[in-house]
Each structure stands twice: as C-alpha cells, then as structure tokens.
Amino acid sequence: MRWNNVEQNWEAFQESLLDTWPDLSEEDLIDVDGDREALEARLIEVTGEDPEDIAQQVDEWLEGAVPSDVHMDEQHDNASIRDSQLYVSPGEDATDDDRKFGDDNVTEDPVQGG
C-alpha cells in the first residue's frame, strides 16, 4: 500500500497504528494527521529507536492489511468496478443482464454440480 492511501484514510488506519505501536496515543495520531515524517518523528520520540529502524518498521506496516473501512470507501469501490472491466470476455457487455444465459433461476445441486 502507498502512504497516500494512509494519509487520505488516516482515521481508518489509527487502530492498526495503535495496535502496532502501543506507545503511541490517540492524541499523537491526531497531531500527526497523516504525515509520515511526523509519525516517524513521534515514534522515535516515544520508542527511543533509531530513525532507520522506525522507517523500516513503517515500511513493513505499510505491507499489512488495509482496514475494511478503506475497502468499503465509495472511491475504492468505483476503482475496483472499473478495473473489473479488464476481465470481461471480448464481445460481452459488462452491463448486460446475465439472466439471458438461462441459469439465474435454476437452483444448483452441489452433489450433481448443476
């Protein structure tokens, strides 16, 4: 994940940050307000670790899971929908109703496969 995603959705990431660095407080995160340099400076202050170690820890944290609040964001959803068009077969209209294929009203039998 990129830092701009974190910055844009700062509140959604705060719980994960507090879980990862329990020495941080909610007030620290309010003060940081999505600024990576400010976060790293505050982490150096509260943990006493080297700046290089903190920068590496933040990089590793960025590789972690994205909170569901971010995934549920309308902007993220719209981007996912646009990207899904890349997987539509040639000649198929992504907006077509699939009922024309005849299987939407048929209950599948998991034992017989259909």
Structure description:
- With 114 residues, the chain is mostly helical.
- It has a domain at 3-70: Protein Yjbj, Chain: A.
- It contains seven helices and no strands.
- It has helices at residues 3-8, 10-20, 26-32, 36-47, 51-62, 68-71, 74-84.
Give descriptors for this structure.
114 residues, mainly alpha, Protein Yjbj, Chain: A, 7 helices
Determine the structural class based on helices, strands and strand pairing: mainly alpha
Task: Enumerate the spans where pLDDT stays under 50 for 5 or more consecutive residues.
Answer: none
State the fourth-level CATH superfamily of the domain at 3-70. YjbJ
Q: Approximately how much helix is present in the residues?
A: 55-70%
The total of helices stands at: 7
Q: Could you outline the blueprint of secondary structure elements for this entry?
A:
Elements: H1 3-8, H2 10-20, H3 26-32, H4 36-47, H5 51-62, H6 68-71, H7 74-84
Q: Summed up, what is this model?
A:
This protein is mostly helical and 114 residues long. It has helices at residues 3-8, 10-20, 26-32, 36-47, 51-62, 68-71, 74-84.
